[in-house]
Amino acid sequence: MCLLDNLSLHLADIGHQEDSLQAIWEAVNIRRRLAADNPAAFNLDLALSLSLRLSDMGCPNDAFEAIHQAVHLYQQLAADCPVAFNSYLQDAVEIRKRITARKVSPI
Predict the structure, then answer these.
(1) How far is C-alpha 79 from the geometric centre of its chain's CA atoms?
(2) How far is CA 49 from CA 15, 71, 85, in A?
(3) Could you give the CA distance from residue 96 to residue 50 in angstroms, rounded to a whole number?
(4) Which of 27, 45, 66, 94 could form a disulfide with 4 if both were Cys (CB 3.0 to 4.6 A apart)?
(5) Which domain does 40 fall in, by range?
(6) How many other C-beta atoms are found inside a 10 Å radius of the C-beta of residue 76?
(7) DSSP conformation letters of 46-94
(8) 57, 21 contact by CB (below 8 A)
């Protein structure tokens, strides 16, 4: 999956946004399956992919859904270990605020 993350970044760097989005979605889908079987091991990776990559790509509705899912995962993680995950949660909430502002502001 790290390979898919890196591929997505490199594709975005060279202007291939659609291919980049496809690669990160594939990584997210794999992480979703892994997290379903073992949330303790994979929820952080899933949340990171959702918040750091998908929130920057695609249409505003996709970005909002991705960051909303990430915030939910970070809330669960922070409930179990606040010291380790509160900063991730705060960052995701800030990203969600920015995406919400983009989503509702006229173009």
Answers:
(1) 19
(2) 20, 12, 15
(3) 11
(4) 27
(5) 2-104
(6) 14
(7) HHHIIIIIGGGSS-HHHHHHHHHHHHHHHHHHHHH-HHHHHHHHHHHHH
(8) yes
The distance of Cα 21 from the centroid of its chain, to the nearest Å, equals 12
Q: How far apart are CA 47 and CA 94, in angstroms?
A: 14
* CA separation for the pair 107, 4 (Å, rounded): 32
Q: Which residue has the higher pLDDT, 80 or 102?
A: 80
For 57-77, the pLDDT digits (tens) are: 666 777 888 889 999 999 999
Q: Which residues of 3-15 are buried (b: 16+ CB within 10 A; e: fewer)?
A: ebbebbeebbeee
Number of domains within the chain: 1
- Give me the numbers of helices (H) and strands (E) for the chain, helices first please: 5, 0
